[in-house]
Design a protein that fits this description.
There is one protein chain. The chain has helices at about 20-30, 55-75, 85-90, 110-115, 120-135, 175-180, 180-205, 220-320, 325-335, 355-360, 430-450, and strands at about 5-10, 45-50, 100-105, 140-145, 155-165, 175, 340, 345, 350, 365, 370, 375-380, 385-390, 395-405, 410-415, 425. With about 450 residues, it is an alpha+beta fold. It has 2 domains: about 5-220, BirA Bifunctional Protein, domain 2, CATH 3.30.930.30; about 325-430, no CATH class. The strands form 3 sheets. Strands 7, 10, 11, 12, 13, 14, 15 and 16 form an 8-stranded antiparallel β-sheet that branches. Strands 1, 2, 3, 4, 5 and 6 form a 6-stranded antiparallel β-sheet that branches. It has a two-stranded antiparallel ribbon with strand order 8-9. It is flat and about 95 Å long.
Length: about 450
């Protein structure tokens, strides 16, 4: 009791996210966007963001900095000093464009002894994420995912440090140094969040996380301590830096005045060259557009032929599944009533026709849990959903546990979607697919007639 470890590591050094390629690498690792025998994307649970982590970070940049960039650009007399895309602008600088925090409770040996409690870490990490956003509001979380496919369940949190204390330039900037100060590293991550985690871990896992050791903080990585020391040194020279910046700004202003005088004399020549260049670009664009139109016409003919063949295959598949419509209807009605499904008799090794249908469509979410997204889905305020069942009987009995988003794979309790899982919200049924195919066939016929005219 009281010996379970807690760690909160921040990306530093080689793991720092200082470029778009490194951000893409983090996205591939966190969401398992590659094939590997050692990892499984089925055991990755999203708590925040989508399956496109790279775009999630770009969205934070747009939400937080677009207005500041607009105000900054309006003040600039020189076009070359304006910023078109702040995300691309920061990516070219030698600094952190995003930050990743990895939270972990317990080591490999602990979880080998508590394998049956791993799933409860969903509640712990969901709570820790909410506390992190409350205690460190300047760290804008873009994406958070729990990894259940490794020895110890842990959470990856990727976000953007937003600093509003700048005195010059943009009113808001990306700044890891000013958001993750020695105080936030120690007080928030290693004091407040440790206590919040201890409380939630004890409630869910019934074990106690060890106390923080006095003296040197052993929960922080060596790289993080180097950053902490560097931050302290940087604060000592900050005043000298500001004086130097003032001198540099004065020199830049003088240089800018000289350039402005030269530009006024050269403005007419530059304007004429620009007009001619635009004319050439317009002619080039028109030529490329005509070439592309010819290529697209030929490609469309090929695509229509391939699409018609695909429609015929889908039609044949639907005809083969029509005899199973009563079983599909029974499955949908049972889910909408919120009931469990009895699919056979395990003592007699007998599966009903519904059980056989479910067995052929079953997809595992994780060990002991399955769902049937290709069989039936429901459109809700949380997106397209399919039910998740606990299957401890090898396909003879299914217990309804929750609902899972088709795109994000986020899990929702059944009670939170009460009233939305109904027949009116069903999507992906055989009748709907058949109706869509008929409409597409008519549209293709009409297009062909117009083309022949």
């Amino acid at each position: 009791m009281g010996s379970v470890s807690y760690s909160a590591h921040i990306s530093n050094g080689k793991s720092a996210i200082t470029s778009k390629s490194k951000l893409e690498g983090v996205a591939k690792h966190n969401l398992r966007k590659y094939k590997s025998d050692g990892y499984s994307s089925e055991n990755i649970i999203l708590l925040e963001g989508t399956e496109n982590l790279y775009q999630d970070v770009r969205n934070i940049y747009q939400q937080e900095f677009d207005e500041a960039v607009r105000e900054y650009n309006e003040k600039q007399k020189r076009p070359e000093r304006r910023i078109d895309d702040y995300f691309e602008h920061v990516a070219k600088l030698d600094q952190d464009m995003a930050v990743e925090i990895i939270f972990q409770c317990g080591d490999k040996e602990f979880w080998e002894e508590h394998e049956d409690s791993k799933e409860k870490m969903y509640n712990v990490y969901q709570y820790v994420l909410s506390r992190l956003q409350e205690y460190l509001p300047d760290f804008k979380v873009a994406n958070a995912a729990i990894h259940f496919d490794e020895a110890s369940p842990h959470m990856h949190v990727v976000g953007v440090p937003v600093w509003s204390g700048t005195q010059k330039g943009l009113s808001k900037k990306v700044s890891k140094r000013n958001v993750f100060t020695p105080s936030s590293l120690s007080v928030v991550l290693q004091d407040k969040l440790r206590e919040e985690t201890r409380s939630c871990f004890r409630f869910n896992i019934h074990e106690i996380i060890g106390e923080k050791k006095k003296g040197r903080n052993h929960d922080l990585s060596v790289a993080e301590y180097k950053v902490k020391q560097e931050l302290q040194n940087l604060q000592k020279v900050e005043s000298q830096k500001q004086l130097l910046e003032t001198s540099v700004d004065s020199a830049i202003q003088k240089l800018s005045d000289l350039k402005l005088q030269y530009d006024e004399m050269d403005e007419e020549i530059q304007s004429e060259l620009t007009d001619k260049k635009k004319m050439v670009e317009t002619l080039d664009t028109q030529l490329e557009t005509k070439k592309l139109a010819l290529e697209i016409t030929d490609e469309e003919l090929k695509e229509k032929s391939a699409f018609l063949e695909l429609l015929d295959v889908v039609n044949q598949m639907i005809q083969s599944y029509l005899p199973l419509q009563p079983d599909i209807e029974e499955f949908a009605n049972t889910v909408e009533r919120g009931e469990n499904i009895t699919a056979g008799n395990s003592f007699r090794s007998f599966l009903s026709t519904l059980g056989q249908l479910l067995l052929s469509f079953k997809e595992m979410v994780q060990e002991g849990f399955c769902w049937f997204p290709r069989l039936m889905r429901w459109n809700t305020s949380k997106g397209e959903m399919a039910p998740v069942f606990r299957d401890d009987s090898g396909g003879y009995n299914y217990k309804l546990e929750a609902f899972r988003n088709i795109e994000t794979k986020a899990i929702y309790r059944a009670e939170s979607l009460k009233g939305e899982i109904c027949s009116e919200n069903r999507i992906g049924t055989l009748e709907q697919i058949q109706g869509s195919i008929c409409v597409l066939e008519k549209q293709i016929d009409n297009t062909d007639r117009d083309f022949r005219r």
